[in-house]
Amino acid sequence: MVLRILPVLLLTLILSDVYLYFKFMYGRRHPLWAYFLFFLPNALLLIAALILTWTENHTPENMTQMVIFFSLYMLIALPKMLFLIVDLIGKGICLFFPRAKKACTMVSSTASLFLFCIMGAGLSFGPTLLQVRHTNFSSADLPPAFDGYRIVQFSDLHLTSFRNRPEMVEKVVERIMEQCPDMIVFTGDLVSTEANELDGFDEILSRLHAPDGVYSILGNHDYLTYAYYLSPEEQAAQREELKKRQRAMNWDLLLNEHRIIHQGRDSIALVGVENDGKPPFPERGDLKKALAGIPGYGQGNDSTRMFKVLLSHDPTHWRRKVLPQTDIQLTLSGHTHGMQFMLFGWSPSKFFYPEWKYMYREGERGLYVSLGIGGALIPFRFGAWPEINVITLHNK
């Protein structure tokens, strides 16, 4: 399905090369090899695009093909398109300020080079620049025994991102364990399209352990509906395999259910729901079912209200259902990735998600959104670096 945007991508490839040809090559004498080098990158991308177009259901079973194509597109075509756009704006400016022609070309070239460097950095070292981000959350409902309690959250591994970088997953596990967590939680999207992405990583991820356990939920990709080349029956079978393999790693997979965590005579509730997003994402979360049986829940008495931490992959769930329907104090989410791009604190994620990174509060209640670790389609990260999140709870 993703590859149905190929006609648009092909159009941008052709437009950018035609524009650059007439600006720098047309009417000038150049050796034959110069023409060859000028057209070669986009010619290769055009051939790759045509190969992908012929793939059944526009989704190659071998995701590597698609990753390579989109990575090269970002590195080659996007800087050219930016040059085209900025240069056309410059031409408009030059209608009023003719002497600015050289300056406009310089600005276009600089912008294009800047984007090329960003794409290169984001595709090379960006996906491995692992960060550890610390935050605190205080609540009057938190029992004194849990003051200073450390929850380590990681999210959106998308293991296909690390097929050629297995050492990155080992690094993630090592960094998590270095934080001395009381509890470890994974907030969804372990894989991108198939359960077999776990192959070779089971043993590494099973090294995670904490005094109060390792817990996980499903993200939208974990339902494997992006594997369009699989039948519904095959998708369902792989979903069950993915659940089974998580449990085999000693992860406690929460499917609209909860666990009571004890510290001495005090306790809190950890609640985990299935993915609950806005269309086209799955909406399978059942808060009522997940909260049923928690001591004091629904009694409307502040003195008996238990402190609850909710794991919900999609942050839009918080405003749509969590805030109006529950008294859950802290929600942990992922999903947005920060669109895997952030520059000076800005990300295109802002156009799609009201809450897309870090901590948000409504009164005494909070939502924490992790930028995650992997990439859903392309192993690219710039600014929105891969991260592990340490949330320390405090009694207010």
Amount of beta strand: 15-25%
Please give the CATH architecture of the largest domain: 4-Layer Sandwich
How is the largest sheet built, in terms of strand order?
1-12-2-3-4-5
Average predicted local confidence, pLDDT: 90
The proportion of residues forming helix, as a percent range, comes to: 25-40%
Keywords: Hydrolase, Membrane, Metal-binding, Transmembrane, Transmembrane helix
GO molecular function, one term: metal ion binding
EC number: 3.1.-.-
GO biological process, one term: lipid A biosynthetic process
Explained architecture:
The chain has 396 residues and is an alpha/beta fold. The protein folds into two domains: 123 residues, no CATH class; 266 residues, Purple Acid Phosphatase, chain A, domain 2 (4-Layer Sandwich). The protein has nine helices and twelve strands. The strands form two sheets. A six-stranded mixed sheet has the order 1-12-2-3-4-5. Strands 6-7-8-9-11-10 form a six-stranded mixed sheet. Strand 8, helix 9 and strand 9 form a beta-alpha-beta unit. Helix 1 packs across helix 3. It is elongated and about 85 Å long. The N and C termini lie far apart (49 Å). 37% of the residues are buried. The mean pLDDT is 90.
